[in-house]
Amino acid sequence: MIKRILIAAALSIISFSAYAQTAVQWGLQTGSNPRTLCVYDTSATRPCVSVGQIDNVAHTFSINVPIGNITGLGTGIATWLATPTSANLATAVTDETGSGSLVFATSPSLTTPAISGGTINNASIGVTTPAAGNFTTLSANTVTSTTPVLSFNAANTIAAFGTTTAGSYNQMVIQNKSTSANASANYVISNDIGTDSSYYGEFGMNSSVFSSGTPADFYSINNGVYFSGHDGDISVGSGNGYKLYFPYGATTNTAHVINASGALGFNTNLGSTPATTGTTGFGTSGQTLITAGSSAPPAWGVLGPSGGGTGITSLGTGVATALGLAVNGSGAISLTTSPAFTTPNLGTPSAATLTNATGLPISTGVSGLGTGVATALGIATGTAGSFVVNGGALGTPSSGTLTNATGLPISTGVSGLGTGVATALGVATGTAGSVVVNGGALGTPSSGTLTNATGLPVGGIAAIATNTVVANPTATSLSPQAQAMPSCSTTASALSWTTNTGFGCNTTINAATLGGATFAAPGAIGSTTASTGAFTTLSASSTSTLAQINENAKLLISPTAPTISSGFGTSASVTANNGTTAFRIGVGTGGTASSGVIGLPTASTGWNCFVQDVTTPATTFTKVTASTTTTVTVTNYNTSGTATAWAASDVLEVSCFAY
């Protein structure tokens, strides 16, 4: 009975518009539970149109209703019921916000949601990688007096973070990972009139490349950490009677301190408790702060004279009174022994010893002067009644004895001169009527006897006959006389001089007969001074032995064979030579010698020599390392510039020139 009632109730809600013109029958299909409820038409095929199912065990009934047969649904509902997607649901709903997929409670994935109000409790925002859970902005427009994450309630709290971390620390990190110039990470606070560029304070750190060169200011140092205030004063301190520390150094166990009384302690101590820390470095009353330069902290002490102080811990009698008087003048304080004053005004001292002073009045400031001395000292030099100074003018003294003076007028200032002497002394030397001075010009005297004179012009000698010379052809000492010159003008004659006889003409030895002459022992051509025997051209048709060559009166090349003075190994020798110009040295045996001394003729200053090792030129080189007027020291080197021994029996080629 209950089943029939359920079926009747169900059928009453089904629309059979599709079968309105056809007779139908109802029935249950046979088979296992649940069984299908069918509607059969009267056609020959009698197909089963399923309208639902009946469960005989659970006693339930379900109906299959085509969505298109349900009326009264809102726009899009039928579509969503037929195809239940998030997009179809969003189309059917008319007051949705946002877009995307339908969200359920467990682990939804939201993209840029805007959450207004509500509470997020014990939830992680973002993932474990901080960069994937960044906030663009956190803001709050209300405050609370209850902060359950802290161990106390903090009034007016807009953000609170608290946890219990045993044996370590909690931290909030702001990091700017940019490696660009002018990049920094900053924590900023502001007030009611603050803007993006005014009335704010910040605590920040610059990037490692914040400034590419010299920083613009102390807030722009690379890797610099700073605390600054803009448009407002900054106060840093420790209230309620505690100390303020300024640590420094690499280990941070050194610091300066300002204690609760405001006293400054430098390089203060680090005690075992806060009460015993920061109790040293305050100095004593009356001390000054003394710098130790840039390598150590300053300290309180008594400033010594080297630092510009006095180094005095107590003052003598009357010193404090004197120091309390206004200073007069400038400069340093002077002590009793050997003080140096610069233009001082001493006033009127009762006694003093002056060694250098100006402004002292002669008439009253100097005692012990003779009669008239003070008056004379007050008269300008060079005027009547004044003292005569060294190099000054005598004026016109009534009498005196001169031992050295200039400007004395000859005509009136010297007495006892012979007639005409004063006039001659007034004439410039070298002119007519002047006195002749030693080494001066005689002028043209009307007469005189010369016993020793130079510079006598030829025109001053008496005339002699033609074709004569002034000579003394005799064997005795006589005055010069005119000597007749023989006629010797042909190309085949030569002028000759015969002792005690004079000049003659020799036609036997002349230039023409010298064309085929030979010299068996000619001796030196020219003198020992090269410049007086120089040849324009020297040529030879056969070999000859050349003597030493000088240049500018100094030895240049010598025919003397060089010698071995020392070194060059065992039994070293000069094996061949052409004087100092070119010679060979045979290095001795042993193979251990790296230097040797060559003996040479005496030079004016020294010797320049050029040495070549012809045996091993590729691996060693020999050069001069010392020189005297008679020796030259040479040393052998390898290609690295290190002194090294010659190989046994090496051959050295040497050329030496004196200077």
Provide a compact summary of the structure.
7% of the residues lie in helices and 21% in strands.
Descriptive overview:
- By secondary structure, this protein is mainly β.
- Among the domains are: 2-63, no CATH class; 196-230, no CATH class; 557-658, no CATH class.
- The chain is built from 8 helices and 26 strands.
- The strands form 9 sheets. It has a 4-stranded antiparallel β-sheet, covered by helices on one side. A 4-stranded antiparallel β-sheet has the order 19-22-25-24, with no helix packed on it. A 4-stranded antiparallel β-sheet has the order 20-21-26-23, with no helix packed on it.
- The longest helix has 10 residues, at 2-11.
- Residues 1-21 and 526-535 have low confidence and may be disordered.
Unreliable residue stretches: 1-21, 526-535
Q: How many individual β-strands?
A: 26
Question: Beta-strand level of the residues, as a percent range?
Answer: 15-25%
Taking all residues together, what is the mean pLDDT? 80
What is the end-to-end distance?
153 Å
Structural class: mainly beta
The biggest sheet amounts to: 4 strands, antiparallel
Level of helix content?
under 10%
> Which strand order does the major sheet show?
1-2-3-4
**Tally of alpha and pi helices:** 8
Oligomer: single chain
